[in-house]
User: Fold this.
Amino acid sequence: MSQDSHCIFCKIVAGQIPAKKAYEDEDLLVFHDIHPWAPVHILLIPKLHIASMAELQPEHAALMGKMTVLVPRLMKELGVTNGFRMVVNTGSDGGQEVHHLHMHAMGGPRPWLKG
Ligand code: 5GP
Ligand code: ZN
Assistant:
């Protein structure tokens, strides 16, 4: 399924829910987390609805590579100069709350609220 009408992140992709965007192209959307753990806390998502890392297939390799390679560039653009942290929660025991694959990238001076 390319989009899930009940999925909050698909609604952000469709422009039905507002988000503070940091980057967008034909495959990916990046926006600021609504409840940031760190001074900079972005979420990188594929526009395609993939529920989690557990659903990834070999054909998603380029997409995931593109997403990963974007992180250092965006963190630099957002003023993060002293390191950052990436988290991908997967499934219930992985603590995933939104079931549309997303990569958290967090940075900025500590202390942080969480993480
Ligand atoms: P998870 O626990 O699934 O890895 O993380 C989901 C993240 O999405 C949480 O950090 C939460 O704050 C964020 N989030 C949930 N709903 C929204 C929303 O409507 N807008 C934005 N910008 N972030 C959201
Ligand atoms: Zn979705």
Summary: Residues 4, 7, 9-10, 49, 100 surround zinc ion (ligand 2) (CB under 6 Å). The chain has a mean pLDDT of 97.
